[in-house]
Amino acid sequence: MTNLLVSCEGPTHFVATDREPKPVWVRIDCPEGLAAGTDVRLSISTFHSYTRDWRLDDIVISQGQGRFVVGHQLPQDWRQMTRGGDGPAGGGLIGRPINEIYLATLQITQSLTPGSILTFALHVGVSPHAGIEGALLLKLRAPGAEPFEPVGDPMPIPNRPGPPVGLEVRTRAVPDAQGRHNLVVYAADSLLNPVVEHRGSLRLKLMGAGELAPLDIEIGEDGRVTAALSHLKPGPVRIEVEDTRGNLVGRSNPAITPQPGELNHYFGAIHFHTRLSVDGDRDPAQAYAYVRDYLNLDVVAMTDHAPIGARWQECLNVNNAFYAPGRFVTLPAWESSNAFGHANLYLRTPQAECGPWYWNPDVCPSEVEWPDDVVMVPHHTNTGQLLARGEQRTGMEEGRYWTKYDWSIPNPRARLVEVVQGRGNFEADALDEDWGIRLGGQGASIQDALALGWRLGFVAGTDNHEGHPSQKDGVFVGLTCFRASELTREAIWQAMDQRCTYATSGVPIICDFSINGVAAGGETRLARGNSVNFSACIHGTAPVERVEVISQGEIVWSQRPNRWDIEIDHVELPRPLGHSAYYYLRLRQVDGHRAWLSPIWLHTTQGSA
Cα(466)–Cα(16) distance, rounded to whole angstroms? Predict the structure, then answer.
């Protein structure tokens, strides 16, 4: 079939922010014709280069004769996108090259005459992430042959960011060992893609404690400005940045200098997928570099769907290559996607014997006896389809891959739970748009688990499958804050194991919360006659509209401060009515971003109230 000439006509590049599909033609010139019984397949090389905006307008034969039948056209749902094998999203699907999507397959039923041209006429809509670039692939299978063979070269669909609309200004929340706050600034389009071609001069101005003369810096060759700001006062400090040429502005998240003995605030993206997942994209190294160099976060963990064999080794290799104690912490992790719940597994070290060979799609993650050097984190607990025990394989064949999390099975390694991610907030069962609870009603929310006696700290993720952590649909989603004494893998893992974490909806809000001197995530006994008093300190990325304390599923204290920075000291709360009660703080900013502080559990004796 080497006599075939394959070409692609259409735009020379696409723009991620332009959501209107563009016409593309894939043309196959057949100088010697094409035999009856030949199968012709058009594919895309990356999972998310294909979007639901694609259209297959026509398949035509010109300048010759022949006939064909179409076996399938563009996929319409996840099951069709993984054509070639069905099953839960883990371990790879048998029968399809990983990450590739079959767009159309046809069979020649009457030979094409010499000189015929076979053309696929498409409208193509690209990924909103400029970092996702695919290529159209043409493959043929000769009559009687088994495998499809590639014909011609891959036909790239280059994807670029749109015009810049603002500046992303990101500083580390706490200084490094030398007392420097690392700052990163870059221009971004309306979907948060870095515009690396943008050039300009930036003026930095300090807002808050301390003084900093306006500082002018030129944007570098990679579209970024980096700076190390030293000797800032304890704060909170925010940096305002203006592009003096491009009329772009931005403001950083708050930065503080902790007092001696205080735990630091380290922020990380710990739930997203790369091309190591059956339905993921982007090289893991590119994703990690993006987190470190643009998002300027402290911690990262890709959680691909049971990356078996060489893919697991690549996961470990990337984590080891990027790990820089004191600068950037990487956590080896993977996702166990099971019929009766999904959970991420975070390993204490790369040597921990808890790799994806533990994956079993037919159970709940809580049924697995996990080793002590792993933290298991259930997510999207209160959503899914109906699956009955013993009938899950039939459900999978019908496209029902998981059901709500089964909280009836205790597991000591479930130390945390993911409150918020791209699908929304799973804090409570009742829908609540103010707090982003868009899925529920199944009795498997986090509050349902707490009511059953689970002791779970809070984290957040994104579940982004395009290798762009903490992003979904052009907004930031799902950051976790780790309270730790130092930025090392062991300290971050210990923070997870000890529930010293909290969740935000995607921005680095700095929070502290304690009851009777016990920090979020802790437990204590309440002596007879003692009151319950809480303190909190909040530094927002926007004015804080609402602060609430939740106990046993009810709001027991609330305030509407409408301020950027809030200090709450020694405010009394209701005592537990029974043997114990949990309390957690949540907040909402005027821009809609939110945070949830891990619960504190108070234990008492019956009748001591």
Answer: 13
Q: Is 493 left (phi over 0), alpha (psi -120 to 50) or beta?
A: alpha
Looking at the fold, whether 370 and 471 belong to one and the same domain comes out as yes
CB 6 within 8 A of CB 151: yes
The answer to pTM > 0.90 is: yes
Question: Residue 209: which domain range?
Answer: 166-262
Q: Note whether 586 and 595 are within 8 A (CB).
A: yes
- Residue 522 maps to which CATH number? 2.60.40.10
| pLDDT digits 0-9 by tens, 249-297 | 999 999 998 888 899 999 999 999 999 998 899 999 999 999 999 999 9
Buried b (16+ CB within 10 A) or exposed e, 261-272: eebbbbbbbbbb
Same domain, 99 and 198: no
Give the residue from 231, 262, 293 where a domain finishes.
262
Residue 172 belongs to domain with CATH number: 2.60.40.1930
Residues facing 602 on adjacent strands? 524, 581
Q: How far apart are the first and last CA of the chain?
A: 84
Report the relative pairing of strands 55-62 and 201-208 from DSSP bridges: unpaired
Of 159, 223, 157, which Cα lies nearest the Cα of 191?
159
Strands 224-230, 237-243: pairing is unpaired
Q: Are 274 and 281 in contact (CB under 8 A)?
A: yes
Integer angstrom CA distances of residue 122 from 9, 25, 137, 355 = 10, 6, 14, 42
Q: Which contiguous run of DSSP H or E holds residue 250?
A: strand 248-251
- Domain total of the chain: 4
For β-strands 532-551 and 510-515, DSSP reports them as antiparallel
CB 287 within 8 A of CB 467: yes
Q: Are residues 355 and 301 in the same domain?
A: yes
- According to DSSP, the β-strands at 14-15 and 159-160 are parallel
Nearest-angstrom CA–CA distance, 522 and 515: 9
Among 262, 292, 312, identify where a domain stops.
262
Q: pLDDT tens digit string along 339-374?
A: 899 999 999 999 999 999 999 989 999 999 999 999
Q: Which two tokens stand for residue 46?
A: 């990356």
Q: Which of 442, 62, 477, 80 is nearest to 269 (CA)?
A: 477
Assigned token pair, 74: 């563009």
Cα 178 from chain centre: 31
Which residue is it, tokens 């339905």?
A: 279
How far is Cα 267 from Cα 504, in angstroms, rounded to an integer? 10
Host H or E run for residue 533: strand 532-551
Asked if residue 158 has a cis previous peptide bond (ω within 30° of 0), the answer is: no
Distance of CA 159 to the CA centre of its chain: 21
